[in-house]
Design a protein that fits this description.
Order of helices and strands: EHEHHHHHHHHHEHHHHHHHH
Distance between the termini: 37 Å
Number of helices: 18
CATH class of the largest domain: Mainly Alpha
CATH superfamily of the largest domain: MFS general substrate transporter like domains
Structural class: mainly alpha
Strand order of the largest sheet: 1-2-3
Shape: globular
Strand content: under 5%
């Protein structure tokens, strides 16, 4: 491994302790076996750690709203707003975070973006208390959105380390490890509720302060920058003119947008929809982590299934299953059946996790059928950045749908109907564009 400092490089000013790898040839089998695999694996491990904590901070307010009792003066609609705001900020940050890796270096940006998580964690640890104005709570929730950008920079960084034949596995493990942060922060909330009680929300954020410091320090000591990593803004511009970019973004709203949106909202939905059973936040927290946990673990399985059966076919049946699961949730809501309600939501999480893997598998295949390999990789990488950002915006839509439904009907039934309709649209899009026999249909998707 060639490591240089500012004096050795001379062409760009770098802090003297920055480590830059000049010679990186992952597609060379000899290089990969001798050095590349070990270096890439080490960077993957610490990338997963920082991305995991980023997801936890991003979804921190899905837990904190469970602590906001009558003393805070925030109604159900306000709580859904508090969970929608970080989703919005995180979605907006994904594009600039994608470009930051090549501009500043994967290691450097990982250290900075990890350390930046201290801001929302410290603020929430010390400022969330009864009597705080709603505007302040809204600002604190918005700052937590920085955790949502970490996924994009982490994926862009790991994508540059691995050879083409291993990218699917590496990116799947990286994404799944990050997604688990949604479940883990909810377990942290459950721990605080069970030990310290509902009057200490700041402890949930406080748990993450030393973990954030540790992850930033480990990234500083153990990760590397790749000198060959480059931003391709032209690819982003080119792919944005392609209809497939926006079709796949809609599909990713249905899969990842559902996963992150339900992850943010599920605990609050339980407390509002079944207030008699979940009047205590401890009872709600006992169940909220199950869905995100299952959805995270099943994401790689969705990718592997797409390898065998085709990404479009798996995505199509995933949306069929999601529509059926949402129908189950709707029926449970109307009947007041808590076990059926929880079963439907767990199925929604599982299906959205599988769909996350299958939709990401579709993207390279779309361009591989239409362009030379190098061009296909260039466009696919750009589309993953766009779809990741737009898909995250789906988390905002989910929480706004719940907010409006509870305001209008007093239940989530209006939101469940909207989800069923949207999944039906996604089914139709997937079949019409990628499965229906027609001239010009992309092959092998």
């Amino acid at each position: 491994m060639t490591v240089t400092t500012q004096a050795a490089r001379g062409d760009r000013a770098r802090p003297p302790r920055d480590r830059w790898i000049e010679d990186w040839r992952p597609e060379d089998p000899a290089f990969w076996t001798a050095r590349g695999a070990r270096i890439a694996r080490r960077n993957l491990i610490y990338s997963i750690l920082t991305e995991h904590i980023g997801f936890s901070v991003w979804s921190l307010w899905s837990v904190l709203v469970l602590f906001l009792g009558p003393a805070y003066g925030v109604d159900a609609a306000g709580k859904f707003t508090l969970t929608a705001v970080p989703a919005l900020v995180g979605a907006a940050l994904r594009i600039p975070y994608t470009f930051a890796v090549a501009r500043f270096g994967g290691r450097n940006w990982t250290v900075f973006s990890a350390a930046l998580l201290l801001v929302p964690a410290v603020l929430a640890a010390f400022l969330v208390e009864p009597g705080v104005p709603f505007g302040t709570l809204l600002a604190l929730a918005a700052v937590a959105g920085v955790g949502g950008g970490n996924f994009a920079s982490s994926m862009a960084n790991i994508n540059a380390f691995y050879p083409q034949r291993l990218k699917g596995w590496a990116l799947g493990v990286n994404a799944g490890g990050g997604n688990l942060g949604v479940a883990v922060v909810q377990l942290a909330g459950l721990l605080v509720l069970a030990t310290a009680g509902k009057d200490h929300p700041g402890l949930v954020a406080g748990i993450y302060i030393p973990l954030i410091v540790l992850s930033a320090l480990l990234a500083w000591l153990r990760m590397d920058n790749l000198a060959h990593a480059r931003n391709d803004r032209r690819a982003m511009r080119d792919v944005s003119r392609d209809a497939h970019a926006w079709i796949m973004s809609v599909l990713y709203i249905g899969t990842f947008g559902s996963f992150i949106g339900f992850g943010f909202a599920f605990g609050q939905v339980l407390q509002v929809q079944f207030a008699g059973d979940f009047g205590s936040p401890v009872k709600a927290a006992c169940l909220t982590f199950l869905g995100p946990l299952l959805g995270s673990l099943i994401r790689p399985a969705g990718g592997r299934l797409a390898d065998r059966l085709g990404g479009a076919a798996v995505t199509f049946w995933t949306f069929v299953a999601m529509a059926a699961s949402a129908g189950l949730v709707l029926a449970a809501s109307q009947r007041g059946s808590l076990p059926l309600f929880i079963a439907g939501f767990v199925l929604l999480f599982a299906c959205s996790g599988a769909g996350n893997g299958s939709t990401y598998k579709m993207i390279p295949a779309i361009f591989r059928a239409r362009a030379p390999e190098h061009e296909a990789r260039r466009l696919a990488g750009a589309l993953m950045g766009i779809a990741g950002a737009v898909g995250a915006f789906g988390g905002v839509l989910v929480n706004l749908a719940f907010r409006q439904s509870f305001q209008t009907y007093g239940t989530g039934d209006g939101a469940y109907l909207a989800f069923i309709a949207f999944y039906a649209v996604c089914c139709a899009l997937t079949w019409a564009v990628y499965l229906r026999p027609r001239p010009g249909r992309p092959d092998g998707v």
